[in-house]
Amino acid sequence: MNTLTTLAPPISQVSNGVDEHSEQTYQALLEAYEQAGGIAAVLQSPYLASLIMNGEQVLEMHSVPGVHLTVERQRIGVAVHISVDPYTVVDQPLYLCLGMLDAEGVQYITTRYDIGAHARVAALVYWLFPHAQKVDHIADSSMHIGPDATLIYTETHYHGSTGGIRAVPQIQIHVAERGQYVGTFSLNQGNAGHFKLEYHANVGNQGLVNLTTRIYGTDHDDIRVQKNVHLNGSGARGMLNTHIAARDHAHSRVYTTMVGHAAGACGHIDCTSIIHGQAMAENVPRVVIHHSQARITQTATVGRVNQCELERLVAQGLDADTALDMLMQEMLA
Description:
Blueprint: E1 2-4, E2 12-14, H1 20-35, H2 40-43, E3 50-54, E4 57-63, E5 67-73, E6 78-84, E7 88-90, E8 94-99, E9 104-115, E10 120-128, E11 134-145, E12 150-158, E13 165-175, E14 180-187, E15 194-203, E16 208-217, E17 222-231, E18 237-246, E19 251-260, E20 266-275, E21 280-289, E22 295-304, H3 307-315, H4 320-332
Parallel strand pairs: 1-7, 3-8, 6-9, 8-10, 9-11, 10-12, 11-13, 12-14, 13-15, 14-16, 15-17, 16-18, 17-19, 18-20, 19-21, 20-22
Antiparallel strand pairs: 2-4, 3-4, 5-6
Helix pairs in contact: 3-4
């Protein structure tokens, strides 16, 4: 088994358009990355696989042995391809910072992950739009997890504080026998804007898909989450957790479907929303069974902020807005 460590030498280091303007853009993107919770020094390490992009421009890219990163310009947008060789275990995560600093514009990116058989890797991905006023973000991703392979994928979004973004990420997931995909999605700072997230997953024999989503909606944010998982193989497993906090005039809609097609397929759906003010939330879980030995359960709840707890925090000296924010963030934690 090929095990990579933090001391593995980089096999490529590419920076496109290195001029004064690009350097300023690079530093500004690193600042946004740290504001969203990342560590810039780690992202810049030449000993870790990483990719930094602003819009459709590559600012920096590193690969390590066993991990291959390519970026190609398409007729519309760019295509990012990340592949991990079979039997490769990457000790440190892949770091991707993909965003747009301009207040207006369109970003279209397709990403494909190919995780070879018996490989294991984690990816920390940040999508950053700190100044969005009129931005369209369209991202189509496909994840291909080979037999006995594992991808742990953590995705964080930051869309700024004006709600001036229309973001439409779609993720296709294909898990082969005994493969595992564990995905966590977070959008809990700033405004979500007009946001539509879709997952479509197919799971083979003894495979696993585990999807956790946490989103905080404020002002007039419009949030829609759709998850569709097919447990096609015997013993396939699925876990879908979706937690939404909505306040002010935000709207959230969550539509979750899990289908059991084979013997031993099992899964659970958990949709939890909490609202305050004039916010609206809709949770619609759907379970479909096509085999008598498949089992899927579901829970769906929509609740309000505990008023007594809110008053207690205000009595302790917090202003009402800060106290409300604290309680909603606790629900998402």
